[in-house]
Amino acid sequence: MRKHCLLLMLSSVLPVLIGTNPAIAGPTVDAIKERGKLICGVGNRPGWSALDSQGKWRGLDVDTCKAVAAAVLRDPEKVQFVKTTTQTRFTVLQTGEVDMLTRNVTWTLSRDAKLGVDFVAPTFYDGQGFMVPKKLGVKDVKGLDGATVCVLPGSTSEKVAADVFGQNKIKYTPVVIQTQQEINTAFFGGRCDVHIQSTSGLSSTRATVAPNPADYIILPGIYGKDPMGPVVRQGDAQWKDIVAWVVYAMIEAEESGITSKNVDEMRKTSKDSNVQRLLGSKDKLGADLGLDPEWAYRVIKTVGNYGEMFDRNVGKNSPLKLERGINDLWTHGGLMYSPPFK
């Protein structure tokens, strides 16, 4: 009986508490505000995160960090980038050396469950792809019958090659090479016909290693699943929410037709309730995240919507020239989708 009464009391009090305390300050945001800068762990893949000729970090992952800084610190430039490797990337996040990771990290069950980290919201859906010299005249993987294929031993690429060639009932000759650098040398030197890797890796390799990038094509089709996006430490719900909704704000902005160029006009004139909520002129949703009403406006104004970020770094306005494909909006047949801003 006493237990029943206690539950009744809690059920009547909790909604009030939740409604009156929407944003409880988390330790990560407090630390970022105190030091005055966001610290992001990044990788070294042109298009996603790499230093340019002026020593500036550029890329889709870099812009994601800048968007979070714009939301939290009101300035996209208040970011310190820490270069990480495949071996150190999770350690620097777990130990608090960085506030978040934005590098090529695939979201998997084992990492999510075992490493004390949370994968937030994918900013790039990837998978394995096939790159060939244009001179082969091949249009798709079915045209690769009899090809030689460079692969790392025991790699995902080796398994994908076996699966794809088997499913299409065509033959190939694997050329097993020990390192990625040696594979690049072998492929561009003509030792094998096919280079298999994630499409992001292939596009970067083509843009930065190929003697003449225009001589090579990545065939249509992505095999396997490699969703990648920001990663944060477990245990700070507010921080996870902020990073996730910054990503969603950029996706929602593209879907709503808001760009870095028209965001001021949209904020002044739009009668669309969704646009008004996103840009902070209605309902003040930022308070629920512990942010001011204009957080999403600043993200869009300074970094752009998701489509602008994609095109600038890896898409049609970049050396990589990647098609949007599955990274297009859900309304265009892709996977990019934001929960509602309500």
Keyphrases for this structure?
single chain, 342 residues, alpha/beta, six-stranded mixed beta sheet, 14 helices, 40% helix, disordered N terminus
Which helices and strands occur, and which strands form pairs?
Layout: H1 2-20, H2 27-35, E1 38-42, E2 50-51, E3 57-58, H3 60-73, E4 79-83, H4 89-94, E5 100-101, H5 109-114, E6 117-119, E7 124-133, E8 147-151, H6 156-167, E9 172-176, H7 180-188, E10 194-198, H8 199-208, E11 216-218, E12 223-228, E13 231-233, H9 237-255, H10 263-269, H11 273-278, H12 286-289, H13 295-302, H14 306-313
Parallel strand pairs: 1-4, 1-5, 8-9, 8-10
Antiparallel strand pairs: 2-3, 6-13, 7-10, 7-11, 7-12
Structural class: alpha/beta
Q: Distance N terminus to C terminus?
A: 39 Å
Percent range of helical residues: 40-55%
Estimate the strand proportion: 15-25%
- Oligomeric composition of the shown chains: single chain
What would the principal axes of the Cα set say about the shape? globular
Rg on CA atoms, Å: 23 Å
Task: Give the helices and strands as they follow along the chain.
Answer: HHEEEHEHEHEEEHEHEHEEEHHHHHH
Uncertain spans, ≥5 residues at pLDDT below 50? Answer: 1-23
Treating each run of at least 4 consecutive H or I residues as one helix, how many helices? 14
The biggest sheet, with number of strands, parallel, antiparallel or mixed sense and barrel status, is:
6 strands, mixed
Average predicted confidence as pLDDT:
90
User: Strand tally, please?
Assistant: 13
